[in-house]
Amino acid sequence: MIREKDKQLLSHIYRGKKIARRYMVTNGFDGTLTMLGMMTGFYVSGTKELGVAINACLGAAVALFVSGFSSAYLSEKAERQEELRKLEQALLIDLEDSHYGDASRYLPLLIASVNGLSPLSLSLIIVAPLFLAHHGILLPWSPFLVAIAVALICIFLLGVYLGKISRQFWLWAGLRTVFIALILVATILMFDI
């Protein structure tokens, strides 16, 4: 049975759902476009060493995780502390041991985890074709082309999700994000020397 204090804590954390969702989409989009850019760059450069490409992509994915986690934690922690301080001043009481104080400590961790894990998980999905090809599994096209297709699917699904949130037509919302990704690919191809 959930105690009243736990219910109030969960209620405060639930209110952070929209913030976490925004971070998930924003940093997930960053991670997906980063991997798409890397895959396009590897493909146009004619890279044959899958091990080198996998290590470079994993390095970028880990960096995206650390960056996303730490930046969200630091900024959300500062925001929550400021809100708690203002509420304490208005109420003239110490809220450190209250459910509001607990939420001020846990919510930044939750949001930071979402912000760090979304680009990491999407990056691992996009890099998966390189892993498969590196371990001898035959793919219908170059592993980089398959990874580019996977990245475009991920971006399309992020757009569909945004369309669902904003109650727009899902296909249009998905195609809009794919269009942004195609601009990225075209820009990289334009600078290929």
UniProtKB/TrEMBL annotation:
Key words, A-Z: Membrane, Transmembrane, Transmembrane helix
Domain of life of the organism encoding this protein: Bacteria
Membrane-spanning segments: 21-44, 50-75, 109-132, 144-162, 169-191
Q: Give the protein name, as stated in the record.
A: Putative membrane protein
